[in-house]
Amino acid sequence: MLTPDSGLIIRKITRWLVLKVGIVSDTHNNLKNCNKIVELFNEAAVDRVIHTGDITQAKTLEVFSHLDAPMWGVFGNNDIGERESLVNAASGFGFEFFDPPLTLNWAGRHVVVVHDPLELQMIDTKEFNVVLHGHTHRQVISFERGRLTFNPGECAGFMTGYNAVGVLDLITMDTTILNF
């Protein structure tokens, strides 16, 4: 039976299911851009944020602590020297960061997250609906055999000259690129 409060209950349950995911990669400690990313993801009302690596410094995670959604991610090749401070910062902000590959099961989708797409050679990706990666600083959105491979590109802006993050709807599998 629906009550006047049912809408609130449905919204809370939907939020818990993780339907909309913000995807960011290769921030390389560009704090100005990270502040913009927080604004974009909060406006988009994402349920979770995934960072596909190359955070590079703990103060980047401090900026991301202003997200309205929890952050999960993997470490990239440029995170090696700052690994201990990144682990401590991630833990302090309630973020979850791992060595790749990170596998998730959200909204009934099997997701794998790596930094370098070459890391995918060590994984049987057939079992995954979604493959997320970074490292190349180039956008990739491809659907093959029912599997989405997605890299929103870089958001540090120093290799390609553009900045972008992505939003993935796990129910519809629609992707959106947010350029800034």
SSE topology sketch:
Elements: H1 6-16, E1 20-24, H2 31-44, E2 48-51, H3 58-64, E3 71-74, H4 83-92, E4 96-98, E5 102-106, E6 109-113, E7 130-132, E8 140-144, E9 147-151, E10 164-169, E11 175-179
Parallel strand pairs: 1-2, 2-3, 3-4, 6-7, 7-9
Antiparallel strand pairs: 1-10, 5-6, 8-9, 10-11
Describe this structure in words.
It is a single chain. With 180 residues, this protein is α/β, with parallel strands linked by helices. It has one domain (18-179): Purple Acid Phosphatase, chain A, domain 2, CATH 3.60.21. It contains 4 helices and 11 strands. It has helices at residues 6-16, 31-44, 58-64, 83-92; strands at 20-24, 48-51, 71-74, 96-98, 102-106, 109-113, 130-132, 140-144, 147-151, 164-169, 175-179. It is globular and about 40 Å long. Residues 6-15 have low confidence and may be disordered.
Radius of gyration: 16 Å
Sequence stretches where pLDDT stays below 50 over 5 or more residues = 6-15
CATH class: Alpha Beta
The major β-sheet equals:
6 strands, mixed
Number of helices: 4
Name the beta content range: 25-35%
Number of strands: 11
CATH domain topology: Purple Acid Phosphatase, chain A, domain 2
Adjacency order of strands in the biggest sheet = 4-3-2-1-10-11
* Helical fraction: 10-25%
Number of domains: 1
- Taken from the alpha-carbon principal axes, the silhouette is globular
Whole-number mean pLDDT: 92
Using the 3D structure, state the CATH architecture. Answer: 4-Layer Sandwich
* Helix and strand run: HEHEHEHEEEEEEEE
The SS-based structural class is alpha/beta
